[in-house]
Amino acid sequence: MDLSFTAEEEAFRKEVRSFIRENLDPVTHRKVADGRIPSKDEIVAWQRTLNARGWATPSWPKDAGGPGFSAVERYIFLDELHQAPAPEPVSFNVSMIGPVLIQFGTDAQKDRFLTKTANNDIWWAQGFSEPNAGSDLAALRTSARREGDHFVVSGHKIWQGMAHHADWMFTLVRTDPSAPKKQMGISFLLIDLRLPGVTIRPIITADGRHEVNEVFLDEVKVPVDCLVGEENKGWDVTKFLLSNERTGIARIGMTKHLIRRIKRLAGDDQAVMRKAAAIEAELKILEITQLRILDAQRKMTGPDPRSSVLKLKGVELRQAASELLLEAAGGQALEERTDEDPLGPENEEWLGTIMPNYSILRAASIYGGSSEVQKTIVAKTLLGLN
Amino acid sequence: MDLSFTAEEEAFRKEVRSFIRENLDPVTHRKVADGRIPSKDEIVAWQRTLNARGWATPSWPKDAGGPGFSAVERYIFLDELHQAPAPEPVSFNVSMIGPVLIQFGTDAQKDRFLTKTANNDIWWAQGFSEPNAGSDLAALRTSARREGDHFVVSGHKIWQGMAHHADWMFTLVRTDPSAPKKQMGISFLLIDLRLPGVTIRPIITADGRHEVNEVFLDEVKVPVDCLVGEENKGWDVTKFLLSNERTGIARIGMTKHLIRRIKRLAGDDQAVMRKAAAIEAELKILEITQLRILDAQRKMTGPDPRSSVLKLKGVELRQAASELLLEAAGGQALEERTDEDPLGPENEEWLGTIMPNYSILRAASIYGGSSEVQKTIVAKTLLGLN
Amino acid sequence: MDFELSDDQRMLKDSVERLISDRYGLEQRLRYQSEPCGWSKAIWNDFVELGLTMLPFSEEHGGLGLGGVETMIVGEAFGRGLVVEPYLCSIVLAGEAIAQGGGEGAGDLLGPIMGGEIIAALADRAEVVTEGSTLSGSATVVLGGDTAQLFVIPEGEGAWLLPADARGLAVRPYRLHGGGGAADLSLDSVPLEDAQRLADGAVARAIECGIGFLAAEATGAMQAALDGTVEYLKTREQFGKPIGSNQALQHKAAEMLVEVEQARSAAIYAAILSNEPDAAERARGMAAVKAVIGKTGRFVAQNAVQLHGGIGVSEEHIVSHYFRRLTAIGMLLGGTDMQLKRLAELGGFTGPEDHLAA
Amino acid sequence: MDFELSDDQRMLKDSVERLISDRYGLEQRLRYQSEPCGWSKAIWNDFVELGLTMLPFSEEHGGLGLGGVETMIVGEAFGRGLVVEPYLCSIVLAGEAIAQGGGEGAGDLLGPIMGGEIIAALADRAEVVTEGSTLSGSATVVLGGDTAQLFVIPEGEGAWLLPADARGLAVRPYRLHGGGGAADLSLDSVPLEDAQRLADGAVARAIECGIGFLAAEATGAMQAALDGTVEYLKTREQFGKPIGSNQALQHKAAEMLVEVEQARSAAIYAAILSNEPDAAERARGMAAVKAVIGKTGRFVAQNAVQLHGGIGVSEEHIVSHYFRRLTAIGMLLGGTDMQLKRLAELGGFTGPEDHLAA
User: Fold this and answer.
1) Which residue range or ranges hold the Acyl-CoA oxidase/dehydrogenase middle domain (chains A, B) (predicted)?
2) What ipTM did this prediction achieve?
3) Chosen from D124, D247, D315 to mutate, greatest number of chain B CBs within 10 A
4) pLDDT tens for residues B15-50?
5) CATH of the domain at B72
6) Are residues A257 and A239 part of one domain?
C-alpha cells in the first residue's frame, strides 16, 4: 500500500503547473481566482492553448486525438486546473459529447466533429432536461418524427448551460412514443443551433448571471446523419454519458482554492480559522477517498456507485467552504457587483462574487444527480436496501 | 400579546420552588442533580410528599383527586421540578394510567385504583411494546382469551420501564384475532404482576443501568373487572393515552440543568461556552414555542400535532447538551462509575454518570414516537404531505 | 400570557397583508427595484398613508404610539413580500435612534421621517473619531444609505446626526444582494457644530429594534418559502407521482417547519422584549433572537432551494429571492457567531448556580 | 500509488480476522471482561503467539519490523471485535515510545513487552515536574494503567520510565466506559535515579501511532456498526414491510456509508503517514485523522443506535457497545475540537498563498 505518486507523476504535476503558470492569460486567471466567470473568448482561447499542448481532452484516448492520460494523470491534471485556478476544458465538449462520439459515433461523425470539438471550434450544449423531466429524465417529451432524410424535432429543453455560447446541442428526443417502456423510445440527436425553429431564451440564476438557458425547438429539421447510435436506443448512449468521466467529481482542488481565500480574509479571526480547519481536515481525507476510488476504478469498467460518495462529500465540503468564505467576507460581501466589474488592485481580495457564488453553489447538490438521488444510489447499489 | 405570567402564576412558581427546596430530601436532590437515578424508595417518598401537598397528579382534575392545575400551572410545576432538579411524579401512574382511568374506568376501578395510584401505593408499569411491535404497536401478538370471569393472557412484552419496581401493569392484548383490522381486536387490560405466570426479566441498557424489562405472560388469569373500556376497543383507549399530557414534552428545564453543569465544568474554555450559548439561544426560543403551543392547546381538545415540534426540537437540544456536557467533562468522564457510588463532596461535580447519560439519552429520539415518526406526523398533519 | 392579537392588531395585519398581496408580487417588486432610487415612491407613500411610518413613535412625537407587536406584524408581511423600501433603515433603525436619543427636538426631527419626505439611515458599522469639533472615519454597509438624506453616525455610546450633504461626508451608494441598497461613508473632518447629538444608549436600543424587525421579516420570508416548497412538493411530479410522496423530502420539509416555528417564536420574543426595561435582559434576548434567526434562516433557505431543484436557483422563481434575502438578514446587524459570542460574554440565560439557590 | 494489500498483509489480515471471529463474540468478550484484570490472558497469549505484539518493532529490537499498514490491519479487526486487551497501551503507545526513545537499551526493554509478560502504559495526560532527581505530579486516564507494570511518564519533550511499584507512585485503577481500563497516577517525589529517560520526540511519535491505531479501530467498529444496521434494516419488519424500505432510513444509512468511507481513508492515511519523515507533515495529518475519526465515529455511532431503535441501547446488542467504544475513541488522545485547534495552529494543509506561486 502506497499513497505516493511516482516520480513521473510528480514530474507531470510540475509540468502541468508550469504550463498553466506560463500560458494562462493573466486576466483569465484573475477572473477565475476571483470567482468570476471568464468570457466566451477567454474560455475558448484557454482551451485552444491546452489543445495546442495536446491536453484539451484529458479523458480521450490517444487514437481519438486525446493525450492518453492514465487515470492518475487525469486526476493530477484536473486537480492542478482546479487549484490554479484555471478554467476547465468545456465539459460539454470534452467530458460529454466527445467520449460519446468516440464510443458510438460513425466514422463520418468522428471526422466531422472530434477535432473541432477538442479545439472548441464547435461549442456544444447539453439538451437533456425538460420542464417535466428532471430527475426523471426518461419522462422527456420532445418529439422527433422521421420525414425522409430528416427528423422533425419539436419540444422544450431547459437548463442548457452556456447554450448562448453554443453552436451545436446534443439532445434526447422521443422517436417512438408507443414504446412499451419510456426509456425505449428515445434517440440521441445532434442539433445545429443555427437551424430554423431553434430559439434560445436566457434564464437568469440566483447569482445574477446568465449561464443557463431554455431551448425551444419548433419543427426543427435535423438531418438523419446527426443521429448518434441506433434510433430508439438513445437511453444506452445516455447511460454511458452520465456514468462516464467521474474523475474529479469531488472538485477538491476548487474547494482548496476557496480555503485559500478564506484564510486570506480571516485575518486573525480564530473562530473562522477553526472552521476552516474542520473543512480542511475532511477535505484532506476526502482526497484519500478520491485516490482509493480512482485506484479501484482503474481495475474495473462501467459506472462505479462509489462516485456518489465522492459527489456527496465533495459537494458538502465545497458548499461549506463557500458558506465560510461568505462569513469571512462579512457584510461587505452583500454589495451587488458583477463579473464585468473592472479588476481591482492585484492584492485586493475581490468580494464581489462571494455571495453570488455561495448562492449558485447550492445548485451543486441539485444538478448532475441531486444529493437525494445520490443517497438513493448508495442505499440501493452499495447497501442493497430497496 | 403578552408573554408574562400573571402575578398569581409567578407566586405559584415561587411557591413550588420553595416547596421543593424545603421538602425534597437532600440525598434525592443530590442524586438527581448528579444525573443519577434515585432508588425506588426515594422516588416513592418524594411522590408521597407531593401527594400530601396535593401536587402528585398535576394533570388530574380536581374532582378526580388532582390539584386542578391550569395548563400554565402544570407547565410551571413541571418546569420547576425539571430545573430543581427533582424527580417527576412517576409518569406511568400520573400521566398515563391515571388519566385513562379517569376517562374510561368504571366507578369501581376508579375507587380501587386512583387514590393508590396518586400516592404510589401502586406502582404501574406500561405494557405496550412487544419484540415485533414497536413503532407498529398494533402488530402486537399477546393474546387474551375469555374463560368465564377471566382473560387468560399469554405473550411477551418488552421495554417495561421500571417494571421491576411495579405492582401492576396496564397493557394491550389481542382479544379478537379475527378482527378485520389489526387495531380492532385489541383490549386494554390491567394485570397484577404478582399473578402466577408473570415473569419479569431485566434488560441492562447502554448506561449500565437496569431501568427496563421484558415481561413474559404465560397463561396469566386476569379477572374481567380489570378490562378498561370495552372489549376490543382498547385502541381508542391507547390513542387517548398516547396523545394525552404532552406538557413539558420538550423537557426544557432538564436541558437547563445540563447547561448549568456545562458552565460549571467549562471553566474558561471559550469554545465550550460558545457552544453552550448556541444551545441556550435555541432553548430560550423553544420556551416561547412551548408557551405558544400551550396557549393554543388551552383553546382546543384532542391531540395537537405541534407537540411533535416540541418533541423534535426539545430532544435535539437535550441530546446536544448531554453531548456538550461530555465534551466539557473530558476524558475523565470515561471512568466507569455507578449510580450507587457514594456521594462526593458537596461542591464537587459528579462526572460518573455523564457518559452513561449521554449514551442513554440517545433513546430520547427513539421512545415515545421516534424522531422519524414525529417528522412523518408533522409532514402529514401539519403540511398535508402524503 | 396571551398570544392572541388584539382586534386593532388584527386589523393592522389584514391591511398590511392586503397591501402586500395586492401590490407586491415578484414582477411588481422587480419594477420597483428598477426605479432610479431602487424602490417605489408610490408604495412608500402607501406605507405613509397607512400610518406604518408613524407606527412605533410615541404620540408625543406625533406617532401612533404602537409597539413591538405591531412592528412585528409589519415586518412579517414585508418579509413575505420582500419589500425593498427603506422602512427598516429610516423608521426602525434611524427613526428609533432619534426617538430614543433626540431629546426635546426628537419630534421635530421625526416629523419629515414619519411623513416619508426624508429617508434616514443608521451607520451601525461606523468607525469614527471626533477631532476637536469635527468627525472623521468611515462606515460600511449603511443600510438605506444610498437614498438617505440624513445619517445617524454612532460615536461612543451616543451618535451624531448628519445631513447627507454635510461638508466632508462622501457617500458611495450601491445595491445589496437580497434587495435594498446601502452605502459606504467616508467622513473627512465633518463639522459637528450644526450636527445634533443623540443621547447615549439610543443606538443600542435602535439596533435591538432592528433585530426585532429582521426577525419578523425573516419569519415572513421563511414561512412563505416553506409554503411555496410544500406547494411545489405536492404539485411537481417525477416518476409518475408528486415528489412530495418521497419520505426523505417529507422529513426535510418537517424539519423546515420546526425551524420556521422557532423563527416565529424568536420574532414574538423580540416583539415582547422591546418593552423590557432591563437592558441586560434585552441584550441577551436580542442576541439569542438574532442567532436563532440566522441559523433557522440559513437552514430554511438552503432546503427550500434544494427541494425546489433547478428552478430554486432561477431568478424567475421567488424562492431564490427568499434565499438571498434570508442570507442577507443573517449577516445584517451582527451575524450568528458574533451574536453567540456576545450571548456567552453576557453569561447566557442560565447561570452555573443551582436553580434552587435562586 | 497502490491501495492493494501485499500477500503477506493479506495473510495477516486473514489470520487476525479469523482469531477475532472465532474468539471474540460479544459473549466471549463479556467473559474476558469479567476476568480479574478485565481482559483475557489467554487471548493475550494468542496475540503474542501470532506475533502481533512484535509486529511494529524493528528486527534490531527483536520485532517483526512491520509498519503502519500492518498495525492498521490489526486495529481494524480489533475494532470489529471490540478487543479489550492492552494492545494499544502496551504495544502501540508505550512500546513505540520506548522503541523511539529508548536508545541502545530499547531492545532489552521491549523484550518482555513483546513477550506479553509485561504490560506497559503511556501517561499521555501527565502533569509532572522534576524536583532535583525526583518526579512529582499526576496523570489522569492512563490507558491500561490499571494492569500496567511499567509506566512511560512524559516530561518536557522526553519521558521517564517508571515501574508501577516505584516508591512514591500511587496508582488508582478503574474500568473505562467502552471497554478497557485505565488509572490515575499520583507521583510524590518518585526517585529518578534508576529510571530510564526516553529521548525527546519519542512520546509525540508514539501518540501519532496511537492515533493511527485508534483510526483503524474506529474504522472496524464503524464498518461493523454499519453492517449490522443495514442487516437490521433488511430484516426488521414494521407495518408489514422491512423498515429498510423507508426512504428516510435508506438515506440515513447512505450518509453513514459516506462517513465510514471517510474513516477508512483516515485510517489508511494514518498508516502511510507513520513513515512520513517530516514531523510537521505528520502532526498536521494526524490532527486531521483524529478530528475526522471523532466526527465520523460520533455520527455513525449515533445513527446506528437510532436506526436500531430500542434494542440499539440495550447492553445485549452489540451496537450499543460500538456506540460506547466509538464515543470513547473520539475522546482519547485528544478530542475533535482540540485536534482542529491544533490543525489551525499548524497552518492547515492549504496556505493562503496562490497555488501557482508554489
Assistant:
1) 125-218
2) 0.96
3) D315
4) 999 999 999 999 999 999 999 999 999 999 999 999
5) 1.10.540.10
6) no
